[in-house]
Amino acid sequence: MKVVIIGAGNIGLAMASYIAVQKNNSVVLFTEKKFDNLVMNDVEENIRSQTTNFYVSNKAEVLKDADYIFCTYPAFLRKQMIEKYSGFIKSGTKLGFVPGYGGAEFFCKKLIENGVIIFGLQRVPYVARAEGNVANILSKKKNLFVSTIPLGAADDVVKDIQRLLNIKTVALKEYLSITLSPSNPLIHVSGLYGAFKKYDENVGYDGKVKFYEQWDDETSKLLFAYDNELQNICRSLFPLDMRDVVPLPIYYESDTPEKLTKKLKSIESFKVVKVPLIGNKPDLNSRMFIEDYPFGVCVIKDIAQMVQVNTPVIDMLLEFYAKISGHTYFNKDGSYTDEICETGVPGIYGIKTKNQLIEFYHGGKL
Q1: How far apart are CA 170 and CA 347, in angstroms?
Q2: Who is most buried in 192, 242, 277, 338, counting CB within 10 A?
Q3: Predicted confidence (pLDDT) per residue in 268-278, tens digit
Q4: Would strands 127-131 and 134-138 be described as parallel, antiparallel, or unpaired?
Q5: Rounded distance, CA 82 to CA 300, Å?
Q6: pLDDT in tens, 129-166
Q7: With DSSP H G I counted as helix, E B as strand and the rest as coil, what are the percentages for the chain, rounded to 5?
Q8: What is the DSSP letter of 330?
């Protein structure tokens, strides 16, 4: 198969090196960066392999005959990518987003109509750290969860991803279980609130503090409440089967906020994550802000309004973001502000009701 990896950041470089090392696929790394070789360093398995079994290109023509395209761009770059390159992606190509949350599928409406298969991974396959041409792979997932539009394409995608990444892969019942995955838009946003809730522009922050070092039980309580709102939204999406959106207390095997705090602090790969700062001020251009709010919290809020679920925690977090950043996406009555077009919400693509949402994902069929 011809596999194109869009983006040479941490995840993109790790996936490209891992797939290229297998030597039985044609791998293209779609980037402006230059690489003569890649080194895949699986830290946990103590496997280090160098490969030249790939080529690098920034020419859109390489997308034309791709079997698989994995987009590892952050959510705020995906709409631009799709608008720029959609004419080069042929019917039958499988275009996936890693990870899949952020509303990217709504940008792909015309591609779906033209026969392109869209897929998303609920979470990234591993934590990755790139150092030059070396991709360090940590915390490799035991299972990956994927869904497709149309849903009927999932079986083939599951088999292929399992072979490419050598991780057991399972099809989810609903693509919305990707969109509403309780990952970064919950965890990062709760942690940001914990770090900056007493923000004062005249007061600096200790730039040495790590993100999960400063996590406390109050932040875990907030995350529990936020996760509960997400579960209420999922239940209100019936007849869609949203049981694949696993509650965070179950996912992290922590049934109390205190246990969750201890769990998050103990995860080795989390220990390098820093509080986003420039100097001693919040870095408002960090992906934790510019990705997880407009392409995470806002998407969840928009769907909540479709199914008429009250979201006081989400509303408070959006008000906090407005205060710290100056960006407001929803008015107090739930209507959109002029900034809503800078988000990934389905409403700006004409999907404004629960039935329209189901229609988009199922084509009118359950």
Answers
A1: 29
A2: 192
A3: 889 989 999 99
A4: antiparallel
A5: 22
A6: 999 999 999 989 999 999 999 999 999 999 999 999 99
A7: 45, 20, 40
A8: B
pLDDT at 81: 96
Give tens-digit pLDDT for 78-125: 999 999 999 999 999 999 999 999 999 999 999 999 999 999 999 999
Strand partners, 274: 210
Straight-line distance from the first to the last Cα atom of the chain, in angstroms, rounded to the nearest whole number: 32
CA distance to 61, 96, 112, 327, 329, per residue, from 192 (Å)? 40, 28, 35, 16, 18
What's phi and psi for 113, nearest 5 deg? -65, -30
pLDDT of 365 reads 57
The answer to whether the CB of 269 falls within 8 A of the CB of 138 is: yes
Determine the angle formed by the axes of helices 354-362 and 298-306, rounding to 10 degrees. 110
**β-pair partners for 50:** 39
Coil vs helix vs strand at 193: helix
Give tens-digit pLDDT for 223-262.
999 999 999 999 999 999 999 999 999 999 999 999 999 9
Q: Which residue has the tokens 């990956």?
A: 144
The predicted pLDDT at position 225 comes to 98
CA distance 123 to 138: 14
Query: The whole model's pTM is what?
Result: 0.94
Nearest alpha carbon to residue 231 among 184, 186, 289: 186
Degrees to nearest 5, angle at CA 245 with 241 and 365 = 25
Give the HSE-up count for residue 321: Cα atoms under 13 Å, Cβ half-sphere: 29
